[in-house]
Automatic annotation (TrEMBL):
It is an enzyme of class 2 (transferase). The gene is glyA. This is Serine hydroxymethyltransferase. Catalyzes the reversible interconversion of serine and glycine with tetrahydrofolate (THF) serving as the one-carbon carrier. This reaction serves as the major source of one-carbon groups required for the biosynthesis of purines, thymidylate, methionine, and other important biomolecules. Also exhibits THF-independent aldolase activity toward beta-hydroxyamino acids, producing glycine and aldehydes, via a retro-aldol mechanism. Thus, is able to catalyze the cleavage of L-allo-threonine. Gene3D superfamilies: Aspartate Aminotransferase, domain 1, Type I PLP-dependent aspartate aminotransferase-like (Major domain). GO terms for biological process: glycine biosynthetic process from serine; methylation; tetrahydrofolate interconversion. Pathway: Amino-acid biosynthesis; glycine biosynthesis; glycine from L-serine: step 1/1; One-carbon metabolism; tetrahydrofolate interconversion. The record marks 225 as: Plays an important role in substrate specificity. Its EC number is 2.1.2.1. Homodimer. The keyword Amino-acid biosynthesis applies. It is found in: Cytoplasm. Belongs to the SHMT family. Its main location: cytoplasm.
Length: 421
């Protein structure tokens, strides 16, 4: 019954150091967020002890009467939040949700058509080393070389030529909204199923600030830990009962064994919060922050340094910075921002001349700072800090920029009142 600090001081030190890092730096990785204390409590709970293979009311283990309540709450809240008829809340992660989605929709050897990884798609949408690229035949669509957006007319032509069994709409790095109704039309025209992976923008959908894919897609999958700010995990939604049955059997026993009941309880909490006015207001600040960032990084002084914003702006929670004409490559820019206390990730831009480990881009997101309480004023300040760093490169006054970062971090304490975790 010893505490973590007593039993394993080395791991306790990791937790302490990581909490310090999260508190003292500005987190701008677009796929990250800060789970609320209530979600962390649910996850760090005795529910981690429970085996519950199966689904509520139909388990392969005894003693599931309490975890059944948690899973039913998570399912009901997810359905309500996204206006879907059916929800599976068991996927351990976004990737395992996506494996179950494809297994439910098609057979190995069938063809998928998704956004290429190099143009903002996700590994699970057909990357060759991923299960999706190994099990299925892959055709990928790309963004237009002029606009850097998906050209729906070209996509339609490609879909007619390729005849995919599934069309995938969704992304990990794309700053605009996709036209789900048009995707549906194209899928219907070529006899394909439509799967939307809303992992990145699910929080915006929940808040009513982004069009919902649920009325258009055969299946919608998501993660719960990005804009939704819940536990690290996945979610699958559908309005089709037959597909729902296939999803269920492809999650368990198809892909997984025992569900993580502590994570499922955390999802229930996250969906409850996501239905609140406070959450909606936070998503508004997230969007306003991304817009402020894109605007600052589109100004003349930034352009003179060869830095620009892909598509000239953003409709979502992130901006993609194009460094193809900058002296800094993606790696150098990521490192420079890290030195002044801002965490981002380098990201290939479409048609990137540099290798994937270096890249010519940055993906910068605002969800975590919005959760921390940032409003437009603070986002304008962060945007200026980033712009100043990228303009000056290695010659930037790092101490002065770090002091501005520290002032913001201090003004918006993370998990106030908690000395340890
Ligand atoms: N789908 C999309 C669009 C994503 O961006 C991600 C995460 O990066 C995933 C799925 C996979 O989620 P996870 O990392 O939980 O497996």
């Amino acid at each position: 019954n010893r505490s973590l600090a007593e039993l394993d001081p080395e791991i306790a030190a990791v937790l302490e150091a990581e909490l310090g890092r999260q508190r003292n730096t500005l987190e701008m990785i677009a796929s990250e967020n800060f789970a609320p204390r209530a979600v962390l409590e649910a996850q760090g709970s005795v529910l981690t002890n429970k085996y519950a293979e199966g689904y509520p009311g139909r388990r392969y283990y005894g003693g599931c009467e309490h975890v059944d309540v948690a899973e039913n709450l998570a399912r009901d809240r997810a359905k309500e939040l996204f206006g879907a008829k059916y929800a599976n809340v068991q996927p351990h992660s976004g990737a395992s949700a996506n494996a179950a989605v494809l297994a439910a929709l098609i057979e190995p050897g069938d063809k998928i058509l998704g956004l290429s990884l190099a143009h903002g798609g996700h590994l699970t949408h057909g990357m060759k080393l991923n299960f999706s690229g190994k099990l299925y035949e892959v055709a990928a669509y790309e963004v237009d070389p002029e606009t850097f957006t998906v050209d729906m007319d070209k996509l339609r032509e490609q879909a007619i030529a390729e005849k995919p069994d599934v069309i995938i709409a969704g992304w990990s790095a794309y700053p605009r909204q996709l036209d789900f109704a048009k995707f549906r039309e194209i899928a219907d025209e070529v006899g394909a199923k439509l799967w939307v992976d809303m992992a990145h923008f699910a929080g915006l959908v929940a808040a009513g600030l982004h069009p919902s894919p649920v009325p258009h897609a055969d299946i919608v999958s998501s993660t719960v830990h990005k804009t939704l700010a819940g536990p690290r995990s996945g979610l699958i939604l559908t309005n089709d009962l037959e597909l729902y049955k296939k999803i269920n059997s492809n999650v368990f026993p198809g892909q997984q064994g025992g569900p993580l009941m502590h994570a499922i309880a955390g999802k229930a909490v996250a969906f409850k919060i996501a239905a609140s006015e406070e959450f909606r207001e936070r998503q508004e600040r997230t969007l306003a922050g991304a817009r402020a960032l894109a605007e600052r990084l589109s100004q003349a002084d930034v352009a003179e340094a060869g830095v620009s914003v892909l598509t000239g702006g953003t409709d979502v929670h992130l901006a993609l910075v194009d460094l193809r004409n900058s002296e800094l490559d993606g790696q150098q820019a990521e490192d420079l921002l890290h030195e002044i206390g801002i965490t981002v990730n380098r990201n290939a831009v479409p048609f990137d001349p540099r290798p994937p480990m270096v890249t010519s881009g940055l993906r910068i997101g605002t969800p975590a700072l919005a959760t921390r309480g940032f409003g437009e004023t603070e986002f304008i300040e962060v945007a200026d800090i980033i712009a100043t760093a990228l303009i000056n490169g290695q010659a930037a006054d790092k101490e002065a920029l770090k002091a501005r970062v520290d002032a913001l971090a201090e003004a918006f304490p993370l998990y106030p009142g908690h000395e340890e975790w």
